[in-house]
Amino acid sequence: MKRVNDSGFTLIEVLAVFTILAIILSIGLPELTKTIKNNDVKKCENFKKTVEMAAEVYYESKKNVVTPISVTELKQLGYLKDTNEIEITNTMVVNVTSEGGVKEYTFSDTNPNGKCR
Questions:
Q1: pLDDT at 26
Q2: DSSP assignment letter at 96
Q3: Nearest-angstrom CA–CA distance, 19 and 100
Q4: What is the mean pLDDT of residues 65-76?
Q5: How far is residue 11's CA from residue 84's CA, in Å, rounded to a whole number?
Q6: What is the sign of the dihedral through the CA atoms of 111, 87, 45 and 60?
Q7: Do 96 and 103 meet the contact criterion of CB atoms below 8 Å apart?
Q8: For labelling alongside 45, which of 78, 88, 106, 108 has CA 20 to 30 A away?
C-alpha cells in the first residue's frame, strides 16, 4: 500500500498558530495604543512650549503689551513658524501675567474638542 505524503498543515497546527498570534496581539495592542497616546501628549507639550517661547519673544519686542495674543496672530506676525503636527485654530491663545516684574506665559485652547488643551 502506498502512503500519501501530505505537505499541508493540520487543523490543530493552524489553530495553535492563531491562538499564539491572538495572545501576542492581546499583549502588544494595548502597549501600542498607549505609546501612540503618549506620543500625542508629548507633541502637544512641545507645541505649547514652542508657542509660549514665541509669545515671549513677541511680548519682549512689544515691552508694555500684556493683552492675550492668539496663536494665529503669532504665526501671521512671523513669531511662529508653520507646525504641521498641530492644526492651529483661532481658539488657541497665549495669556501673559506679570507679577513682580516677572512675566509668565500660559497657552490655552478654549475649544473643548481641541487636541492640545
A1: 92
A2: E
A3: 65
A4: 82
A5: 49
A6: negative
A7: yes
A8: 78
**pLDDT for 18-69, tens place per residue?**
999 999 999 999 988 898 888 888 888 888 888 888 888 888 888 777 788 8
Amino acid letter for position 14: V
Query: Could you tell me the strand order of the sheet in which 102-109 lies?
Result: 69-70, 92-99, 102-109
DSSP bridge partners of 95:
106
| pLDDT value for 3 | 63
Q: What is the DSSP string of 11-38?
A: HHHHHHHHHHHHHHHHHHHHHHHHHHHH
Q: Find where cell 497616546 sits.
A: 37
Identify the residue whose cell numbers are 519673544. 57
- The candidate with the shortest Cα–Cα distance to 68, out of 116, 100, 113, 103, is 103
d(CA 27, CA 58): 48
Comparing CA positions, the residue from 99, 106, 103, 92 lying closest to residue 63 is 103
